[in-house]
Specification:
Number of strands: 11
Oligomer: single chain
Structural class: alpha+beta
Length: 230
């Protein structure tokens, strides 16, 4: 049975990048965005943002499909859809089930990119939905950040664990941070790239969170939440 019953169709996806190759903190930087424009999807770099400028200092050289000299790209969806397995693949339903999505997924490619993040092992990019225009009812997925700094592998919550969302306005590193707590304490944070939209959701509707999936390795600890907006 799928966990996602109310598909959220985003109008904007953030292209998020983090540096790799050393042991320093991996700050997620918004370096571009995909925007619905009628029947097409446009891409543009966020060249004037602080995130983009910091990403360049940290080694960002552009998304592989588009040089940094490009200001915007029309009909950009295909360049990102290739990061997903083909829908006609025999095991595509299994791929969807990893994210709690129904085998007969009826959402758009924009929605699918948002739910899966379109991550590849070969680079440091992911796509994150802008949650500013979420309307209830909607079911979304959130992969927490900073998990390995909060809990040990033996403390990973079990799937089905209920969580609470707690803004941290006094957080010295990020006053917009939103922490995620289980009954045993803080287990991670909402991805910085989506905190503005997520904060709006918390104010505008009833938002509940449940651990959908966990995983851990020597280098990475993963917690994916099912977030229901009603």
């Amino acid at each position: 049975m799928s966990a996602i019953n109310h598909i959220f169709e985003p109008s904007r996806l953030f292209l998020v990048w983090h540096h790799s190759g050393d042991c320093s903190p991996r700050h997620r930087r918004i370096v571009g965005e995909l925007l619905r424009d009628g029947d097409t999807v446009k891409f543009r770099y966020a060249k004037n943002s602080d995130d983009y400028k910091q990403a360049e200092k940290e080694g960002f050289i552009g998304f592989p499909a588009f040089t940094k000299n490009v200001s915007s790209v029309d009909d950009a969806l295909d360049a990102f859809s290739t990061r997903l397995p083909p829908r006609k693949r025999a095991d595509f339903g299994r791929y969807l089930s990893q994210y709690g999505l129904p085998e007969e997924f009826t959402g758009s490619y924009m929605a699918l990119l948002g739910y899966t993040g379109a991550r590849l092992e070969s680079d440091s990019f992911e796509l994150c939905p802008d949650y500013s225009d979420v309307t209830a009812p909607a079911d979304i997925l959130i992969e927490l950040t900073g998990v390995r700094y909060q809990i040990s592998p033996s403390e990973m919550p079990q799937p089905g664990t209920q969580v609470k969302f707690r803004p941290e306005p006094e957080n010295e590193h990020d006053p917009k941070a939103i922490a995620v707590h289980s009954e045993n304490g803080r287990i991670g944070y909402i991805n910085k790239a989506v905190t503005s939209g997520f904060a709006r959701m918390l104010e505008a509707m009833t938002v509940t969170g449940t651990v959908l999936k966990t995983g851990s390795s020597e280098a990475h600890a993963q917690i994916i939440l099912l977030v229901q907006c009603r």
